[in-house]
Amino acid sequence: MTSLLGYLGGEDGRNILSGLVNTCVLWVVGTLLGTVLGFLTAVARRYGPRPIDWLLKACVEVIRGTPFLVQAYLLYFGGPYLCLELGGASACLTLDPFEAGILGLTIYAGAYFSELFRAGFDAIPRGHIEAATTVGLDRWQTLRRIILPEMTMLVLPAMVNMSILLLKETAVLSIISVKELKFQVDIIGNRDYAFVEAFTILALVYWALVELCGRAGRYAEARLSRYRFAHS
Amino acid sequence: MSWELFWLLVEASGLTIVYSAVSIFFGFLLAAAICGADLSGRAAVARPARLFVSFFRGTPLLIQLLLIYYLLPKIGLNVPSEVAAVIGLSFSTASYQAEILRGGFQSVPRGVVEAADMCGLSARATFRRIRLPIAVRLTLPALTSEAIMILKSSSLISVVGVVELTTMAKDLASSTYQPLPIFASAGFIYLVINLVVAGLGLWAERSARRGHA
Amino acid sequence: MNRRVLINWSLALGVSLGLSTLAPKVASADVLDAVKKAGVLKVGTETEFAPFDFIDKGKHVGLNVDLFDEIGKELGVKIEWIALPWDGVLPGLESGKFDIVAGPATITKKRLERYKFSPPIAEATVAILKKKGDASITKPEDIAGKATGAGKATVQLSLLQDLVKKLPKQGEVKEYVGFNEAYADLAAGRIAAVANSLPNIAFVAQTSGAFEVVLPTFGPKTYFGFPENADAEHVKLNEAVAVAMGKIKADGRMGKIQKKWFGVEFDTPAEVKEPSL
Prior knowledge:
The complex is a heterotrimer.
Chain A: H1 2-6, H2 10-47, H3 50-64, H4 68-78, E1 83-86, E2 89-92, H5 97-123, H6 126-134, H7 139-170, H8 181-191, H9 195-230
Antiparallel strand pairs in A: 1-2
Chain B: H1 3-39, H2 43-58, H3 61-70, H4 81-106, H5 110-118, H6 123-153, H7 165-176, H8 179-209
Helix pairs in contact in B: 1-2, 1-4, 1-7, 1-8, 2-4, 3-4, 4-6, 5-6, 6-8, 7-8
Chain C: H1 3-21, H2 31-38, E1 40-45, E2 48-49, E3 53-56, E4 59-61, H3 63-75, E5 78-83, H4 86-94, E6 100-101, E7 105-106, H5 109-112, E8 115-117, E9 122-123, E10 126-131, E11 148-151, H6 155-166, E12 173-176, H7 179-188, E13 193-197, H8 198-208, E14 211-218, E15 223-225, E16 227-229, H9 235-250, H10 253-262
Parallel strand pairs in C: 1-5, 1-6, 11-12, 11-13
Antiparallel strand pairs in C: 2-3, 3-4, 7-15, 8-16, 9-15, 10-13, 10-14
Helix pairs in contact in C: 3-9, 3-10
């Protein structure tokens, strides 16, 4: 145990910390951007014209039907070959690993979140929306005052679960050399022939993060469910 | 990209399917045991069951696979690559399936169970004839999604030395310098497999509903 | 945090730390005897190290495959390959996942403290690989200020890091899971150079047509060997492999294999006692 603490000082400690920070940034930013993308997708599918709905549905199915690792490979290794020619100049999607990681997580999360929101929209009783229209709320007000708060409560548990899945997916990004927690700890474990210890510690750190996230989610649910009583 | 390369990907997807199918099967058996332990009400078995679920849901599969492959030899269990891959995938899916099954059993309406009881069915018969079929019917959609999840997760087993679809795609991409068509093709193959699984899931749901109008 | 959670957590922590500090189980049987009895020699490697081990049209090929076929014939056993990412290969050797590593790995003092090495199979001295036609790099020092890369957990990476540290302008040194990813990034233009051993990049430059080798080499002169377990159970196996390799070298089979994969035959010392690194 004392030997483990030795890693926390000096350059190793800084590298591990930067890995942990990168993991958290990937996770939080991926979840937030994914939520926005997912919400926009769900709204576009619900209120937009039919062809948009079909197109987005196809995209969502493709993203949900393929492994995250393949998507990461495609973005990172395929990106530089994905070029846009504009009047002689060409721009290619050459992302560094971290950018590819954020973009990949956002798209992946967006697809799953959009399905959660779609289910959330469908689960709101029609009567509530009709009632809102009757009392004179316009479409935007209905969305903001009625649909959003009700939906948040409905989809929150599933969103917490999804964001836990995302946290675990960030470890996959070490394969495209994103310098997140696993990547950094691996390097030290390999240098010092302490790979088993490295994997053990990684498992415990992710476990702790996931448990924390789950607890925070249950707390948020409990807080929000106070509002549920107001109109049930 | 040539048909020859595409065919190599299709061949490799065979292993993806085999590893996933075997793991989902073993995972289901393990999940049933875990779910039983969890719902037994006895702390001595329920607590380890819950710890198992918490650990395998709370850590990345990538790290679970590495732990199984490199940590087990330290306690004298030196499993080869193929076995490590199956253990990793089955344990991971078992932890999810156990939660799904638990949800299913807990959603069986109380009244139905009570009615069975009143009709004089034994606890065993109630379980086999009433609770199990209803729970399975309730959990089929979630189990189908879980099967698709595992098919996708199997893309990680190359870290313990098993070559499947994703690894083959990566190897081909780096030897031909054509990552775009090769990874797109790999994605397409996963999509086709998963659509078939989703279709089978729907078919199973429909047959389970038959006679339960 | 309530008590039950605390108990669960400390239990988990205790079990995992306990497991991870347990001494490796002592295998009592001699490995050579076991290998001969099973008729199979398990060889661990990474398949991103052309021309030693790589995947061509979905098949594992390379110098190591041909050489171990011959070694297998000498020992009278079949070869079973286990391919892992490079940073998992030496851990795999230590965990007893396979009997020997084909790698190959640069023979260094630090590695010799922990492993045995087979007789050297090729020179491992490191040079720079650049994109074809890149006029800005004509010697290793020209990578100053440019992004470069090499495989994770490799000697080539640390030599590159040492070189970059000495330069006036220091570009980023990227670490890749395997060298193929580094070559892919070089082709994609994310990095300006990859550092790897001369036999590797000479082969890659020749077969891909997209890259060029920058000479001279940099860092000390080193050799590649196959890493082996250093414990008592592996002594006989390591000796048998060395004898087999000596025979393969003496009767000209090694030369043929070298010619096939490098285009030239070359000589290597019979043993590396004092590595330069």
